[in-house]
Specification:
Layout (H helix, E strand, L loop, with lengths): L9 H5 L37 H11 L6 E5 H13 L6 E6 L4 H8 L3 E6 L8 H5 L7 E7 L11 H10 L3 E5 L21 E6 L11 E5 L2 H10 L7 H11 L2 H22 L5 E4 L6 E6 L2 H10 L5 E2 L7 E5 L3 H13 L3
Parallel strand pairs: 2-3, 2-4, 4-5, 5-6
Antiparallel strand pairs: 1-7, 6-7, 8-9, 9-11, 10-11
Length: about 350
């Protein structure tokens, strides 16, 4: 059994977190004279530091207990907190499977943590044989797994992921930003089985709230305790909490939009496969398509000239571009543009 306290940094174990008077006040109304706020206005009060109402709504939405939920200022804050809590700068390391979401490595660099990069295999799956040699490294504290993965758009094999969780004595972070678009089940069902597991989700993709910066971490109460201990006291604004609550109050809108995006994804993939400059459209469990073309740089620039912005991934996967699924009229404009580009 993994002992989380042996993975947490010594200074974090000793840390006395910032405390405000309202940490000790359980009511929702009162005369507040503790935080030096302006007494006038509608946004004059600091937000709920533990987002109790929003966490309760997330718990109902995802079927997860409140004590297993942490909310961050986007998933990027959660990624950064993982490094701050578990990795000693200049000593410890993290492992990623490339190509993948770039913020894992950026956050590692900010926190002076070495990154071990293991390439995904030809099917964009985890190479267990290459990975196993690092699992016994006492300085390896974090493994990041993006599933469905960005930019490859596929889900990772559940058996491979669970094998790594069971064999690793550090923390495994599974980034499920795109899980709503996948036919594969979430890894949340493993939370009760493994104490070293953190699962990230977000309001930015299927819930359509990228501007609000609301990230979610599901984990054990012990790990959630350390997130709350290290985070800034008011890490999520009242405005964003209210917006997220309104979104969760309309689940039928979320379900309808996800279905529309998945339907358009499949239609778009079918149309792209018929265009001469496109060599392969990879299968997708996300809201985007990874597409191999004859000349990624030329096609990317030609699309820019037509005011269509896609993501050029040629630097990480040769001659590939990443296309986010848009509305039907946007997808039609992209299809027409690609047909007109001579490569």
């Amino acid at each position: 059994m993994v002992d989380i306290n042996k993975i947490v940094r010594e200074n974090v174990l000793r840390l006395t977190p910032y405390s405000c008077a309202r940490d000790e006040f359980q009511g929702s109304t009162g005369v507040f004279m503790d935080a030096n706020e302006n007494p006038y206005g509608s946004l004059n009060r600091y937000p709920d530091p533990y987002q109790k109402e929003l966490k309760a709504a997330v718990a109902r939405f995802r079927g997860i207990a409140v004590e297993n939920i942490f909310l961050g200022n986007g998933s990027d804050e959660i990624i950064d907190l993982c490094f701050r809590i578990f990795c000693s700068p200049g000593i410890d390391s993290a492992l990623t499977f490339t190509p993948t979401y770039g913020m894992y490595e950026v956050s590692a660099s900010v926190n002076d943590v070495k990154v071990i990069r293991i390439p995904l295999n030809g099917n964009f799956q985890i190479d267990i044989t290459q990975t196993e040699q690092f699992l016994s490294d006492k300085n390896l504290k974090l493994i990041f797994i993006c599933s469905p993965n960005n930019p490859t758009s596929n889900s990772m094999n559940h058996s491979d992921v669970e094998y790594l969780i069971s064999k690793f004595n550090g923390i495994i972070v599974i980034d499920e930003a795109y899980i709503d678009f996948s036919e594969q089940p979430s890894f949340v069902k493993l939370l009760g089985k493994y104490p070293n597991l953190i699962i990230m989700q977000t309001f930015s993709k299927a819930l359509g709230m990228a501007a609000a910066r609301v990230g979610i971490a599901f984990s054990t109460p012990e790990i959630i305790h350390y997130f709350n201990k290290v985070k800034p006291p008011y890490n999520m604004s009242t405005i964003n909490q209210i917006a997220a609550l309104k979104k969760l109050g309309k689940p039928e809108v979320y379900r309808t939009q996800v279905l529309k995006i998945k339907t358009e994804r499949d239609r778009l993939a079918g149309k792209l496969k018929k265009i001469k400059s496109i060599e392969k459209v990879f299968s997708s469990d996300s809201n985007f398509l990874l597409v191999r073309v004859k000349d990624a740089n030329s096609i990317y620039n030609a699309l820019i000239d037509r005011n269509i912005v896609v993501r050029n991934r040629n630097s990480v996967i040769e001659n590939c571009i990443r296309i986010t699924v848009g509305k039907p009229n946007e997808n039609n404009k992209l299809i027409s543009a690609l047909k007109s580009i001579a490569i």
